[in-house]
Amino acid sequence: MSKFCRFPNFPIVALLLYAIAALSGCASYEAQNTESLLSASGFRSRTPSTAAQQAMFNRMTPYKLERRVRNGKVLYAYADKAKNVVYIGGETEFQRYKQLGLQQSIAEQIWRRQKSTKKHRCTILVLTGDHGIHGGRIS
Predict the structure, then answer these.
(1) Helix (H, G, I), strand (E, B), or coil: what is residue 109?
(2) Are 76 and 89 in contact (CB under 8 A)?
(3) Closest Cα partner for 98 from 69, 75, 65?
């Protein structure tokens, strides 16, 4: 094992953390992941502050990204009912959200594939702005 790979049990720890997240509820993990991607994509989080906003929020499907047209402009909204927060973004933020979701999916696939083929190897995956995914290995 290389002197640079200081975490030989990283796959075990990662698997343990994944199992804990699964046991605490996949839905909450999925919601947290989606909300992280929405925030990273530029969606704004808002708390309904008026009765009209609260009524609109209550009509929204929880934990589902919805497309709406308001005053001729396309908006996307995602309601987290547990936190009483709605994430709002436009077409630019939505396209960025889809791009980040794809990058995350590819990174997870690479991580799973490498985890299953090699033991005691650290893999570094970096998601960068407009440059995509870069991976490096330390053997």
Answers:
(1) helix
(2) yes
(3) 65
Q: Is the entire prediction scored with pTM above 0.70? A: no
What is the chain's mean pLDDT, rounded?
Answer: 78
User: Dihedral (C-alpha) 119, 120, 126, 131: value to the nearest 10 degrees?
Assistant: -60
User: What is the DSSP annotation of 47-81?
Assistant: ---SHHHHHHHHHSPBT-EEEEEETTEEEEEEEET
With a cut of 70, say whether residue 139 has pLDDT above it: no
Q: Give the H/E segment covering residue 28.
A: helix 26-40
How far apart are the C-alpha atoms of 29 and 18, rounded to whole Å?
10
Distance CA 100, CA 17 (A): 22
Using only C-alpha atoms, the chain has a radius of gyration, in whole angstroms, of: 19
Q: How far apart are CA 1 and CA 120, in angstroms?
A: 7
Report which secondary-structure segment, H or E, holds 96. helix 91-117
C-beta atoms surrounding 93 within 10 Å: 20
The pLDDT tens digits for 52-79 are 999 999 999 999 999 999 899 999 999 9
pLDDT tens, residue by residue, 106-121 = 988 888 888 777 655 5
DSSP state letter for 60 = S
